[in-house]
Amino acid sequence: MGARIRAAAGGLRQIREVAGGGSYLSQSDLRAHFGLGKSTRIDSIEVLWPSGLKQAFRDLEADKFYRIEEGRDEIGLQRFAPHSETPKRDARP
Prior knowledge:
Helices cover about 0% and strands about 35% of the residues.
């Protein structure tokens, strides 16, 4: 938490900060979302951690969730369970 993330894709540069804080009994999302438009690749991602460590990753595929951990040179692909629709029930008085 407290990481600053810079992403570059198709000539567009964006910065996000992952704070992770929140208010009572809640927490902010630890994911950073970057809108890449029509870009199919991410030219670079740079992460500046609160410790001062800087990590860089290059030429990543767009439309993926990546898991980046401080100090690890490998970047992981985050997998999620397939979406399932919640059954609808009739509301009755």
